[in-house]
Write a structure and sequence with these properties.
The structure is a single chain. The chain contains seven helices and seven strands. By secondary structure, the protein is α/β, with parallel strands linked by helices. The chain has a single domain, classed as Vaccinia Virus protein VP39 (Rossmann fold), CATH 3.40.50. A hairpin with a 5-residue loop joins strand 6 and strand 7. It binds S-adenosylmethionine. The site of S-adenosylmethionine has 19 residues, from helix 1 and strand 2.
Length: about 190
């Protein structure tokens, strides 16, 4: 199945300069885990997560664009990855099974969401008590930033403030990506 944009997302996600292997290493996924890849695009990460969590695990590839989801389903089918389930999301809402997720992964999507505090408050019920939310988003820093010019970035202070309002806390931060923050949140105790 062809989809130019989905392929383009995957090409960028898999580019070694964007450190996909290091991102996966850092997440240290375990067999049997359940992961939601929100704004899954072409599914590069969803499919790698499915490999990592194995047959006992589960990956929800979630997007507002049904064509991207069809694209992901067709690749998952080709690879025999029947643990990948696609879910169509609306702009502000998403329904997932209660306390089911070990990890919510949201890469280059945070800046697309409109009411983020409400969005993450709603998602809290789907996260296991020790579950993590991984937010990777563009910093928009640098003298000439395409991402800043087009509003495809979110200041770190904004992410932290909004996530705190949604009752999450920043527990870890990795400085391994050139153009993006890599932030890990958990539910506030
Ligand atoms: C820049 S792409 C990132 C794709 C993928 N996360 C990656 O890292 O390759 C942004 C994706 O987010 C999706 N998206 C935008 N708003 C969304 C929303 N409210 N809920 C879920 N997905 C959304 C878009 O359709 C698109 O696939």
């Amino acid at each position: 199945m062809k989809n130019f944009k989905a392929n383009m997302f995957n090409k960028k996600a898999s580019d070694p300069k964007n450190k996909p292997d290091q991102i996966l290493e850092t997440l240290a996924l375990q067999p049997g885990q359940t992961i939601a890849d929100i704004g899954s695009g072409g599914g590069y990460f969803s499919l790698r997560f499915a490999d990592a969590v194995g047959r006992q695990g589960k990956v929800y590839a979630i997007d507002t664009n049904p064509e991207f989801l069809e694209f992901i389903s067709s690749i998952a089918k080709e690879k025999g990855l029947d643990t990948v389930e696609t879910i169509i999301a609306t702009e502000n809402n998403l329904s997932l099974p209660e306390r089911s997720l070990d990890l919510i992964f949201i890469r280059n999507v945070y800046h697309h969401l409109s009411n983020r505090v409400k969005y993450f408050k709603n998602l809290a019920g789907a996260l296991k008590p020790e579950g993590k939310v991984i937010i990777i988003d563009y910093t928009g820093s640098g003298f000439f930033s395409f991402h800043r010019m087009f509003g495809h970035c979110t200041p770190k202070e904004t992410i932290v403030e909004e996530m705190e309002k949604a009752r999450y806390e920043l527990v870890q931060e990795y400085d391994i990506l050139q153009e993006q923050y890599f932030l890990i949140f958990t539910l506030k105790k």
